[in-house]
Amino acid sequence: MCFRRYFAASLIVTAVPLYAQVPARHDSVARAMVRTALVQNRSIELLRDLCAIGPRFSGSEQYEKAAQWSKTTMERLGFDRVWLEPVMVPHWVRGDKEEAVVYPAKRRMLMPVSVAALGGSIATPKDGLMGEVVEVRSFEELRTLGAAAKGKIVFFNRPMDRAQINTFAAYGGAVDQRGRGAIEAARVGGIAAIVRSVTTRIDDVPHTGSVGYHDSIPKVPAAAISTRDADRLSELLKTEPGTKMRLTLNCETLPDAATWNVIGEIRGSELPNEVIVVGGHLDSWDKGDGAHDDGAGCVQSIEALRLLKELELKPKRTIRAVMFANEENGLRGGIAYAAVQRPGERHVAAIESDAGGFVPRGFGVGDSAAYVRIKTWEPLFAFMNADRIVRGGGGADISPLMRQGVPGIGLNVETQRYFDHHHSDNDTIDAVNERELALGAGAMAILAYLIAEEGL
Amino acid sequence: MCFRRYFAASLIVTAVPLYAQVPARHDSVARAMVRTALVQNRSIELLRDLCAIGPRFSGSEQYEKAAQWSKTTMERLGFDRVWLEPVMVPHWVRGDKEEAVVYPAKRRMLMPVSVAALGGSIATPKDGLMGEVVEVRSFEELRTLGAAAKGKIVFFNRPMDRAQINTFAAYGGAVDQRGRGAIEAARVGGIAAIVRSVTTRIDDVPHTGSVGYHDSIPKVPAAAISTRDADRLSELLKTEPGTKMRLTLNCETLPDAATWNVIGEIRGSELPNEVIVVGGHLDSWDKGDGAHDDGAGCVQSIEALRLLKELELKPKRTIRAVMFANEENGLRGGIAYAAVQRPGERHVAAIESDAGGFVPRGFGVGDSAAYVRIKTWEPLFAFMNADRIVRGGGGADISPLMRQGVPGIGLNVETQRYFDHHHSDNDTIDAVNERELALGAGAMAILAYLIAEEGL
Known about the structure:
Two copies of one chain form a homodimer. By secondary structure, the first copy, chain A, is α/β, with parallel strands linked by helices. Chain A has two domains: 16-92 and 255-454, Aminopeptidase (3-Layer(aba) Sandwich), CATH 3.40.630.10; 99-250, Glucose Oxidase, domain 1 (3-Layer(bba) Sandwich). Helices cover 37% and strands 24% of the residues of chain A. Chain A is built from 15 helices and 16 strands. In chain A, the strands form two sheets. In chain A, strands 1-10-12-11-13-16-14-15 form an eight-stranded mixed sheet, sandwiched between helices. An eight-stranded mixed sheet of chain A has the order 3-2-9-5-6-7-8-4, with helices on both faces. In chain A, β2 (98-103) and β3 (111-113) form a beta hairpin. In chain A, α2 (25-40) runs antiparallel to α15 and α3 packs across α9. The longest helix of chain A is centred in the last third of the chain and has 21 residues, at 434-454. Chain A is elongated. The two termini of chain A are 30 Å apart.
């Protein structure tokens, strides 16, 4: 953007508050919420309890425990209504065998590789599959290779772009390899897809995530390897072309499983049928604790409602915490929530926290009119340095609501560390700072309260 | 602040850029600096090397190694001039014995406590000292106790205020207990000062720091205990008044030691005698690695100059990286640097990074005229979300320069996690995120370059 335009835009945007009508009492409420969140420090306590259950993958016993924990917790906190809503979710299990071994073309020494099947992947034959490895950095490069990739294991090795300030942008620029790698590999006759973990870190931990298949294209197994192993393998392929890999996975897809979205609410005192959703997804990958992704968003949603009760606030509209099922490999929870007929009820807005329990910087608003309105509330978030209200945002779980016209809003947090942890054994409770987590809960509570009081 | 005033202030401040004269080429330089910092990722490599030496306490062998490492590193990077300047520093050594054991008044079970002598403390008698513990939360409370504290160990237990958004404000509200606790304890006849660690975390790690003495008041030993032990001890004192503690420290103060500030610079192409300092302090406490405090600031200062060279920029004015000695327990490095006569030379500004290697949010400017000028450059930091230029700031090491009228500027970073690590065994390289560290280096490089090109 040229400077002249920057300056003009900056003036317009920041001049808005001058004309805004923000009742002054909201400022003291906002400060009280954040003070209470920091001092009582409940978010981290909730997250410790939740993470103690273990990873909460869709279809797992732990997910069921986490759903019960969420329900019991919200009941214990005295929310006005707490209930479960049924959802059918995909049920993929990793199995007990995942192994990748590189056979260098020249050297005799085998190189074991840190590997994790991608969620939804088919298994390999029982004794694994073996093939020459061919490295590509893009689907275009793979298509150029064409027949040369036939019968081979396709190794997608384009790193996240380190130069991006927002790591979500870098993630967006690399994750196609994980999501569509198996399809594109099979399209040229490849026998498996190996993907460089989509993380900013160079380490030994593989990061999983969903892989997609097309019904019209043969399914091939797909797995992520650690970034350090990806670099090693890439080096090896330069000096020893013809290097092979044996990949063994015994994951499998079981029939869909019955589970739940978990919901709790504080009823509006004047307009109880107008609802503001605050939510996150309760399921996680089957790695780590799912602390940042998205245990953080769940406990922040619960904490947002708890703060209202603690401060004895009676918002005009209903504020509802939703712990969505199955964001990671199906989005069935978000879809099911939006599909439920709720006669007489209207969703005013939906706010999601699903970018990790990091320090909040503001909100992204995925609706023009809502953006203009919420932008006028920026001053109310300035005291906590979370006053960057930007256009564009939302969340996966609330996207089905957004498609129905409900304004969706995402909590924007500092992104530098998220992908160090994302979808891996690194996503554990000890990587969450209690103050950063609590500030996010405070920001969610403030925005939900403002919308409940002022409407949108 | 009332809302009317907030809005008015916000309008004035953000309107400034409209009238600013910022050459557009600076924008591409700024982006290139940050891109290079992130992609080449040298800051963390430098910090790993530095931290591998071990803690760099004033007077220690490791400080000497760190000084040599800094010099060699800057020479290897091809800076125009690299040199050492002599400094005499205090030389306190912790000794091999620090022990605190609580003797409950009623129960028979002894309670060992995590303890660390405060820097500068005198030793206890060889077999320790034993005394009844009396808890206070403020110097006022201690003065009210008066004679009742005579002969006792005074336990200062006022926590950091969790409600503060900026943890430095919370630190400022608690650290008097550490700095003046021994003086105030001795003033009422206390025989030692025990201080609750000045940290946001509840854990088992004691956080050290300097203790002061007055020549006119008897010196008594002073030590920090972990926050968890402070809470335990406080509980115990409620139910078992008369509880005692045995404290054993064999720390000692040796004669002052000769050491160095380490300096490297890139000479200005047009005004080489006008100097912008970028710096941090090379000494650390004798706990952890001194990674955040202040290895981060040192490597960011080196990296700022390296980025200039890497991008083949020839700034008009000289940019000088200074690794100051002895910030932690004497400030002798900062004082010595400012005291050196440098004929013909003028310091235009000094920028310090000493708040940890966390994500940068902007700068604090401790000079009114400089603030007004630098504020107009905010748009140049917006792309990296580090555009909060605020009035007030600087750094301990550059404070002697500031007293000579040199505008001092501090890199402001996200503060939530800093005091988890500060002055303790928690301050290690693995607590530093490479991207956050690199972004800080980029911000330092941009501001130093802008001042070098535009003056102040």
